[in-house]
Design brief:
The complex is a heterodimer of chains A (625) and B (248). Chain A is of the alpha/beta class. Chain A has five domains: 56 residues, no CATH class; 96 residues, 3-Layer(aba) Sandwich (Glutaredoxin); 231 residues, 3-Layer(aba) Sandwich (Rossmann fold), CATH 3.40.50.11540; 68 residues, Ubiquitin-like (UB roll) (Roll); 84 residues, de novo design (two linked rop proteins) (Up-down Bundle), CATH 1.20.1440.230. Helix content of chain A is 41%, strand content 12%. Chain A is built from 26 helices and 14 strands. In chain A, the strands form three sheets. Chain A has a six-stranded mixed sheet with strand order 5-11-10-14-12-13. A four-stranded mixed sheet of chain A has the order 2-1-3-4, with helices on one face. The longest helix of chain A has 18 residues. Chain A is globular and about 95 Å long. The termini of chain A are far apart. With 248 residues, chain B is of the alpha+beta class. Chain B has two domains: 72 residues, Ubiquitin-like (UB roll) (Roll); 124 residues, 2-Layer Sandwich (Alpha-Beta Plaits), CATH 3.30.70.20. In chain B, strands 2-1-5-3-4 form a five-stranded mixed sheet, covered by helices on one side. A three-stranded antiparallel sheet of chain B has the order 6-7-10. In chain B, a hairpin with a 6-residue loop joins β8 and β9. In chain B, α2 runs antiparallel to α3. Chain B starts with 7 loop residues before the first strand and ends in an 11-residue tail after the last helix. The C terminus of chain B is likely disordered. The chains are: A alpha/beta (625), B alpha+beta (248). Chains A and B meet through α3, α4, α19, α20 and α21 of A and α2 and β8 of B.
Chain lengths: 625, 248
C-alpha cells in the first residue's frame, strides 16, 4: 500500500481535534464533526491532513464525510440554515418562511451567498413537529417560527452576530408534556434501580438464579444480581420501543451469553422518523432514567463500555447530557466499582450523529459509531453477538432503557400488569399535526386512536400517520383500532391530518423523505425510492396515468422483496396506504386512464422552434394528431 | 471431516447442490456449474449483496444468494416468474440510473450489465431515465473513467484495497447521490497511484474503468458475451475443484 504522504505543514487545530479523540479511526465521524467547526465545512486539504494523520486512505475519509448530511465537503457558509421539511412543518407554513428568509438575505435556496456568509436549505424532520415550523442554524434548533422570528434571524445573520450571542429565547424548546403515565411519572432517585438489582441478588436464594455463563457471576459481591434482574426484564415482556418490538429480555440474554471478552451497551437516540420527538423530551427531562437503564443493562450482560448515539439534530442537548454523565460519575453510578461493587466497571461516551436517518437502523448505527458510512450490515450475525467492533452489543431505544430501569426497580410483574396481554407497559407518543394540543402523551398500550385524538383536541381528523411514514396511515374508519403490537404497532409518532388536508401531498412529502434518506447501498432502495418520487411528482404535475399507479404498486412489491434493510421495505408504505384509503385524491390527478410519457415530446422541440424561428401550429406536436 | 463422507447438499430449483461448510448459496451453486444471475458478486471477493440481482427465495423469504449461508436441505428457488421479473426490474433500474448507450460503448459485448440484461430478456429500460450529469475523467495517460456507466458494485473498491493494496477507489455521497471517488485531493485519477495492470482495472464489470487505445482491439461480435450468453458461461467460470477455490 502506498504510504500516505505526511503533510509538511503542521495544523495545530486539526491535531487538537485528533488528540481529543485519541486519533482513533473508529472516532472518524466525531473527528470530522469537530474538524468542521473551524470553517463550517471540510476543505479538501483538511480531509487529506486527517487521512494522513489517521493512517487511512484519503478516499475513505472523503467517502465518510460525503455520507452524512451535516458534514459539508463544499463551502456552506458561516451560517448554515436548514429548515425542517417534514409534512407537519410544511403544513405550518415552513416553505413561505424559507422563501422569506431567502429573499430577505438576497440568496437562492440551496446556494451559498456570494460573500460566503450564509446558505439556506431544507433537511429532514428535526424532531420539533410539536412546535413547527422549525429550523437548525449550525445544528442549533429554533422552533415556533413566525415571520417576525425569521426577520430577526435575517437581521442577526446580516449583522454577523455570533450564534452564542443570539437572544437565548430564540433557542427555547418546549417539552409540551401533555399526559404522563408510569414512565413519565416515575421519580426514581439516581442509582435506585441499580441498587435494587444488586439487592435482588443478595436477598434471593441462590437456586432461583439462572445458570447461564457470565463472568459477572464470578464476582463474590454480587452473587446472582445480574441473572435475577434479567429474569425480571424477561418476565416484564418488555419489547423494544424503537419499532421492531423485539423482546428486550431475549436480546439481553443473547448478548449476555455470547462469546467475547468485551460487551457494549448502545442507546439509540437517533430518532429520525418524521413526526417523532419523544426521545428529545425523554433525554431533556429523564436522562438519568435512560442512563440508569443502560447501566442496569451493563450490569446484566457484563458490559464495560456504553455509547449514547445522539442524533445530530439534538446536539443542543449535548451539554446537559454530558453534565448528567459527569454527575453520575461523581456519585459512583458510572466508572469503576459502580455503587461500590468491585468489578462493576462501566462508562458511557456520547456519539453525536451527523444527519442520516438510516443510522437509526441498529447495524447502520454501529457502523457510524465505528466511523464508517452508515450502511446497514448483512445479518446474521446480529449485534448481540457481532456488534460494535464485532463484539457482543445490545442496542436499545431510549424509551426501552427508561422502561428497563423501572422494571429493575419495581419488578417484571409490576410492568407486565400495565398495557395489554401482548404489549406490556406504556408507550410514549409524539403527537403532532392538526390538533389543539400537540406534544408528548404517555398511555398504557391498548389505547384507541380515537382516545388519543380526543385527548389532543383533533377537530375533524381525516387520517393519522401512526409510527411515521414507515408505519401505517389509517383513515377514520379505523380510529377504533388500538395501539399495540397485536393491532397497530408504533414507535411513537402520531401525526394527525384533518379533513382539509390533501393526503396525496402528505404521501408525496414522505416519498421524498425516503429518497433523501436512502443510504444508496442496494439497487432497489437507491433507485426505487427516487422512481417513486418521480412518479409522485409526475402525478402532482397532472401528467400521471393509471400506468403510474400500477408502477408504484409494482415498485412497492420489488422494494419489499429485495431491499437490504427496513428503510427500503417500508419506503412505499405511505404511498400505498394512501392509495388504498384515499384513492380519489390520486385519481383526480390523472391526465388520462391510459399511459402518459414522463418525457414531454413537444417541449423537447422548443429549442428547435427557437432556432428556426417557427412557432406556428405545424411546429407543435399537439397540432399533428 | 471424513474425506469419504458425502458432502451436504441444498436444493436449487429442485436440483441437489453440494456445498462445503462456510459456503454461500452463490458460491456452491457456481462451483457446481449452476448460474444465479449476479452483478456485484465476484468469486474472488467477499460478497456484500448490494445489487440484489441474485435475490432468491429460501425458507419463505427473499434473500440475496451471494450472502446466504448454504445449509443442508435448504430449498432455494431461483428461477420463478416473480424472481425473474424482479431481476429484470433491478437491471432496468441500473440502466435508467446511469447513462448507458450500448451501441457507442466500447465495453459492449464484454459488459456484464448488458449480458445479464440480454440473458434475462430485458428488451427496454421501461422505467423513466434519470439522465444524470456525470463526469468523465481522462486525466490519466493510460486509463480513463466514464462514471456514466457506473453501477456502484464496489468491485474496484474491493479489488484496489484487497488485491492491489492501494485504495484507489471509494464511494461517497448517499442515496441517488452515491458515486465513485478516487484517492486524490484533486479528485483526478492521474493523481492516484493506479497502474494499468491493477486488478481494480480488470474487475470493472461495465465500461467505467477503461484502458486507453485498446477500446476496439477486439471487434464487436467477437467479444466474450457475443460468443455465448453469460448464463452458459457459468460452468466455464466454475473453478476446477472445490479445494482450489479462491477468496471468500
Amino acid at each position: 500500500m502506498q504510504a500516505p504522504s505526511t503533510p509538511s505543514r503542521v495544523d495545530p487545530f486539526l491535531d487538537q481535534v485528533l488528540a481529543r479523540h485519541g486519533a482513533d479511526p473508529f472516532a472518524l465521524v466525531q473527528i470530522l464533526r469537530d474538524a468542521q467547526v473551524r470553517h463550517g465545512w471540510l476543505p479538501p486539504a483538511a480531509i487529506t491532513y486527517l487521512a494522513s494523520r489517521l493512517g487511512m486512505p484519503r478516499a475513505h475519509v472523503e467517502g465518510v464525510a460525503g455520507f452524512y448530511a451535516f458534514l459539508y465537503t463544499e463551502p456552506a457558509g458561516r451560517y448554515r440554515v436548514l429548515f425542517a421539511d417534514n409534512i407537519v412543518e410544511r403544513l405550518a407554513g415552513s416553505e413561505a418562511l424559507l422563501e422569506r428568509l431567502c429573499s430577505s438575505l438576497w440568496i437562492e435556496r440551496g446556494k451559498l451567498s456570494e460573500d460566503g456568509l450564509v446558505s439556506v436549505d431544507t433537511t429532514s424532520c428535526i424532531g420539533m413537529s410539536d412546535q413547527p415550523p422549525s429550523l437548525l442554524v449550525n445544528a442549533r434548533a429554533i422552533a415556533r417560527l413566525t415571520a417576525e422570528r425569521i426577520d430577526e434571524i435575517a437581521e442577526l445573520i446580516r449583522e454577523q452576530v455570533p450564534l452564542d450571542a443570539w437572544p437565548a429565547p430564540l433557542f427555547a424548546i418546549d417539552d409540551n408534556l401533555r399526559r404522563e403515565d408510569a414512565l413519565l411519572q416515575s421519580r426514581l432517585e439516581p442509582g435506585e434501580a441499580l441498587r435494587a438489582s444488586i439487592a435482588r441478588g443478595q436477598e434471593q436464594p441462590l437456586e432461583r438464579a439462572g445458570n447461564e455463563r457470565s463472568w459477572r457471576e464470578l464476582l463474590p459481591a454480587l452473587p446472582q444480581g445480574p441473572a435475577l434482574t434479567l429474569e425480571e426484564i424477561k418476565r416484564s415482556n418488555l419489547r423494544g420501543r424503537g419499532g421492531a418490538g423485539f423482546l428486550t429480555g431475549l436480546k439481553w440474554e443473547a448478548c449476555r451469553t455470547a462469546n467475547g471478552p468485551l460487551r457494549h451497551v448502545v442507546c439509540n437516540a437517533d430518532e429520525g422518523e418524521p413526526g417523532t420527538f419523544k426521545d428529545r423530551v425523554l433525554l431533556a427531562r429523564h436522562a438519568d432514567l435512560a442512563i440508569e437503564g443502560m447501566t442496569v443493562c451493563a450490569y446484566v450482560i457484563g458490559a464495560s463500555s456504553g455509547f449514547l448515539y445522539l442524533r445530530g439534530e439534538y446536539e443542543y442537548l449535548l451539554d446537559s447530557l454530558q453534565a448528567t454523565l459527569a454527575r453520575r460519575r461523581a456519585m459512583g453510578l458510572l466508572g469503576r466499582g459502580i455503587v461500590g461493587v468491585a468489578g462493576f466497571d462501566f462508562d458511557i461516551a456520547i456519539h453525536v450523529g451527523a444527519g442520516a436517518y438510516v443510522c437509526g437502523e441498529e447495524s447502520a448505527l454501529i457502523e457510524s459509531l465505528e466511523g464508517q458510512r452508515g450502511i446497514p450490515r448483512n445479518r446474521p450475525p446480529y449485534p448481540v453477538t457481532h456488534g460494535y467492533r464485532q463484539q457482543p452489543t445490545v442496542v436499545n431505544n431510549v424509551e426501552t432503557f427508561c422502561a428497563a430501569a423501572l422494571i429493575a426497580r419495581h419488578g417484571g410483574d409490576w410492568y407486565r400488569a400495565l398495557g395489554t396481554a401482548k404489549s406490556a407497559g406504556t408507550k410514549v407518543l409524539s403527537v403532532s399535526g392538526d390538533c389543539a394540543r400537540p406534544g408528548i402523551y404517555e398511555y398504557p398500550f391498548g389505547v384507541t386512536v380515537r382516545q388519543v385524538l380526543e385527548d389532543c383536541g383533533a377537530a375533524n381528523p381525516q387520517a393519522v400517520q401512526v409510527s411515521g411514514p414507515s408505519g401505517t396511515c389509517i383513515g377514520d374508519a379505523e380510529f377504533d383500532r388500538r395501539l399495540g403490537f397485536e393491532d397497530l404497532p408504533t414507535a411513537g409518532a402520531f401525526t394527525v391530518f384533518d379533513a382539509t388536508r390533501d393526503m396525496f401531498e402528505v404521501a408525496r412529502n414522505f416519498a421524498h423523505f425516503f429518497a433523501h434518506e436512502s443510504c444508496g447501498f442496494c439497487t432497489p432502495c437507491r433507485v426505487g425510492t427516487t422512481l417513486v418520487c418521480n412518479a409522485m411528482d409526475k402525478l402532482a404535475d397532472q401528467k400521471g396515468s393509471l400506468h403510474d399507479l400500477a408502477r408504484i404498486e409494482r415498485l412497492n412489491r420489488l422494494l419489499q422483496a429485495s431491499s437490504h434493510c427496513g428503510l427500503g421495505h417500508t419506503a412505499c408504505n405511505p404511498v400505498v396506504d394512501t392509495l388504498r384509503q384515499f384513492r380519489p385524491t390520486y385519481e383526480r390527478r390523472l391526465k388520462s386512464t391510459a399511459f402518459e410519457p414522463a418525457f414531454d415530446l413537444d417541449g423537447a422541440l422548443a429549442r428547435a422552434r427557437a432556432m428556426t424561428g417557427r412557432d406556428d401550429a405545424g411546429a407543435h406536436l399537439g397540432a399533428v394528431e | 471431516m471424513n474425506a469419504f463422507s458425502p458432502r451436504a447438499t441444498f436444493q436449487l430449483d429442485g436440483v441437489d447442490v453440494p456445498f462445503d461448510p462456510g459456503d454461500t448459496v452463490m458460491q456452491a451453486a457456481l462451483a457446481a456449474g449452476h448460474y444465479i444471475p449476479h452483478l456485484c458478486y465476484h468469486r474472488e471477493f467477499k460478497p456484500h449483496g448490494s445489487c440484489k440481482v441474485c435475490t432468491v427465495r429460501a425458507n419463505g423469504q427473499t434473500v440475496a444468494a451471494c450472502t446466504l449461508p448454504a445449509q443442508a436441505a435448504l430449498a432455494v428457488e431461483c428461477v420463478t416468474p416473480e424472481l425473474e421479473e424482479n431481476r429484470r426490474t433491478l437491471v432496468q433500474m441500473l440502466f435508467v440510473e446511469g447513462n448507458h448507450f450500448c451501441p457507442s460503448c466500447e465495453k459492449s459485448g464484454n459488459c456484464l450489465l448488458q449480458a445479464v440484461a440480454y440473458d434475462l430478456g430485458v428488451l427496454s429500460a421501461d422505467l423513466d431515465h434519470f439522465f444524470p450529469s456525470r463526469p468523465i475523467d481522462a486525466s490519466h495517460p493510460d486509463l480513463w473513467l466514464d462514471l456514466n456507466r457506473c453501477i456502484l458494485c464496489e468491485l474496484c473498491v474491493r479489488a484496489s484495497a484487497e488485491v492491489d493494496g492501494k485504495h484507489v477507489f471509494a464511494l461517497s455521497g448517499r442515496g441517488m447521490g452515491k458515486h465513485l471517488i478516487v484517492n486524490a485531493e484533486s479528485g483526478r485519477l492521474v493523481d492516484t497511484d493506479i497502474a494499468v495492470a491493477d486488478k481494480a482495472v480488470d474487475v470493472c464489470p461495465v465500461g467505467v474503468i477503461l484502458r486507453k487505445r485498446v477500446g476496439f482491439a477486439v471487434p464487436i461480435g467477437k467479444r466474450r458475451y457475443d460468443v455465448e450468453p453469460v448464463s452458459a458461461q457459468a460452468k466455464a467460470d466454475a473453478p476446477p475443484a472445490p479445494a482450489a477455490r479462491e477468496g471468500r
